[in-house]
Amino acid sequence: MKNLEIVRSTFKAKFEAEGSVYFSPGRINLIGEHTDYNGGFVLPGAVDKGMLAEIKPNGLAKIRAFSIDLNESAEFGLNEEDLPAASWARYIFGVVREISKRGGKVEGFDTVFTGDVPLGAGMSSSAALESTYAFALNDMFGLGIEKFEQAKIGQATEHNYVGVKCGIMDQFASIFGKAGHLIKLDCRSLEYEYVPFDPKGYKLVLLDSVVKHELVGSPYNRRRESCERAAATIRKNHPQVEFLRDATLDMLKEVKFELNDEDYMRAEYVIEEVQRLLDACEALKKGDYETVGKKMFGTHYGMSKLYEVSCEELDFLNDIAKECGVTGSRVMGGGFGGCTINLVKEELHDAFIEKATKDFMDKFGVSPKVYDVVIGDGSRKIC
Ligand code: GLA
């Protein structure tokens, strides 16, 4: 592990000591996008890339942190008023604060970290960072926080210290990931199931549009508000509808004239997406990847035309995938940039990548980045 040596030598150079090293991965999501905060299902998996941090208690009432990738230091206290200025440091601070709010006693520590999950590519680098510290601080200070609560600590960090009202998917996938498996999570009951994923004859590949996906201050929170408004309107006729996950298209149609067009389209996408995920899971059980792929294209269409979280570059990559006979392709994660996820037959993989790279370069003047997906394990202590 190349990053391990870097983390170790940097920590030693900065703090003249040796701490413990923890890792948490980024994630992919096969299908089920923007369903988590609507009480629906998601189907993520952890990847083999993520954040690696070395940490050691320092006996002080403060945190001294160093980001290797940004070559920046930050020093801050443990109390609410000690909010650091650097946005990267707020992830660490937020995790510490959320643990404290839950009664966990975190003491001062020194830390350095680095990552190989690309930033802003929609692979949840920020959740990987939060999960690393939630997992590590729990382990290091013996806090006894169970894994779901660790994921919620990361999510609350986004809500309260970053400003993104995200769902639970990213932090959950990072902490619970398992090599060779996707995880079907019911985001309302938090029941989950590991689904073996080894599509023989296919590859999963990400094409990064290199359009930086940035959820902070983005219309992400507005999407969530639209969904909540639509659910509340439907609930007037159907009290059992807690989230859009409980609604049907017929229920939505009943309130068509009470909702603005935008809220209607957002809700239509979510209701369809919940069903697409369930259909895809059924198909996966049968090894029917052609159906899974069709659902992925359906998701892309919905995210682009109804939820409006795609962009020209991602639509372009999706069109090329179609042209090349790729089985399934769609924008992955929150959207507004980042990657497409592609399920492609092995024999088509190279030609697809070649054409996508060339055509994208011709049109946008940059090369998309290509990541072959390896489904890896979740948060863990390395040494
Ligand atoms: C981001 C959020 C997740 C989820 C996805 C879209 O990654 O952090 O909670 O809403 O977008 O599925």
Defining traits:
single chain, 383 residues, alpha+beta, Ribosomal Protein S5, domain 2, Alpha-Beta Plaits, six-stranded mixed beta sheet, four-stranded antiparallel beta sheet, 11 helices, 21% strand, globular, binds alpha-D-galactopyranose
Provide the fold topology.
Elements: H1 2-15, E1 20-29, E2 41-42, E3 44-57, E4 62-67, E5 72-77, H2 87-101, E6 109-115, H3 125-140, H4 147-162, H5 169-176, E7 181-186, E8 192-196, E9 202-208, H6 220-237, H7 249-254, H8 261-285, H9 289-305, H10 312-323, E10 328-331, E11 339-345, H11 346-364, E12 369-372, E13 380-381
Helix pairs in contact: 2-3, 2-4, 3-4, 3-5, 4-5, 6-8, 8-9, 10-11
Bound molecules: alpha-D-galactopyranose.
Explain what this protein looks like in three dimensions.
This protein folds into 2 domains: 4-197 and 377-381, Ribosomal Protein S5, domain 2 (2-Layer Sandwich); 202-372, 2-Layer Sandwich (Alpha-Beta Plaits). 43% of the residues lie in helices and 21% in strands. The protein contains 11 helices and 13 strands. The protein has a 6-stranded mixed sheet, with helices on both faces. Strands 10-11-9-12 form a 4-stranded antiparallel sheet. Strands 2-7-8 form a 3-stranded antiparallel sheet, sandwiched between helices. Strand 7 and strand 8 form a beta hairpin. Bound molecules: alpha-D-galactopyranose. The site of alpha-D-galactopyranose (GLA) has 11 residues, from helix 5.
